[in-house]
Amino acid sequence: MTVKxxxxxxxxxxxxxxxxxxLMSGYSVNVYDPFEPSLExxxxxxxxxxxxxxxxxxxxxxxDIEATAKDADYVIEAVPEKMELKRELxxxxxxxxxxxxxxxxxxxxxxxxxxxxxxxxxDKVIGMHWFNPPERMSLIEIVRAVQTSDETLKVTxxxxxxxxxxxxxxxxxxxxxxxxxxxxxxxxxMRMLEEGVASPRDIDTAIKLGLNHxxxxxxxxDYVGLDTxxxxxxxMTEAMGERFRAPxxxxxxxxxxxxxxxTGQGFYSYEQKD
Length: 274
Fold this sequence. Notes:
alpha/beta; Rossmann fold; N-(1-d-carboxylethyl)-l-norvaline Dehydrogenase, domain 2; eight-stranded mixed beta sheet; 47% helix
């Protein structure tokens, strides 16, 4: 199967970055988002990575699901991490896309098999977990659902390679490899903070310099969003037990509206720029 057109559903931070990279990699890209400002930001991001001629000829923006997806050979969903939202979108995509079209979800921890279950093409549904920012991070974690076909996996690996990525293939297990491992690290760092083992800065410095991580766990949590971290922690706890339970520090920060970089305060304080 030859993929010429990729549809990206969702023009937020991840979706716009995925769209820009796919455009850079030679694909025609259709981007959907219900909010016009998000579509404009996606266009700006694509312009920074390519040029006006490429954007004019190979990028299409729309707030209509069918118009975005009907001509696509491959669809990448990048909407918020809510199971019902993803299942609703996949049901709609199944109805409006061509029979050969592959549907990929960018979920970082939800069941790909459950998402596939609302479609009549379960063999053509797969997890394609990108990392932020997509243009710079070198990995794509491919998640093979119970029904995913060999052909769907092959096409997903080819697209990933075309985009310059290294891939790993994992089973459809809650949190996969990366989210499961990262959640453990971030939660343990928060517990050390609660226990007074060290200050936030010293915990982060120890992990960065001692374990050669590019970011410390607490600053990374602020970057990801503490509300997102709490959601992941609660989901992982429900599926895998108490070792993933969110520390009270995380829960209290979220209750206080201190969600990290996006609100200006989390484990650290950030200057808000006008």
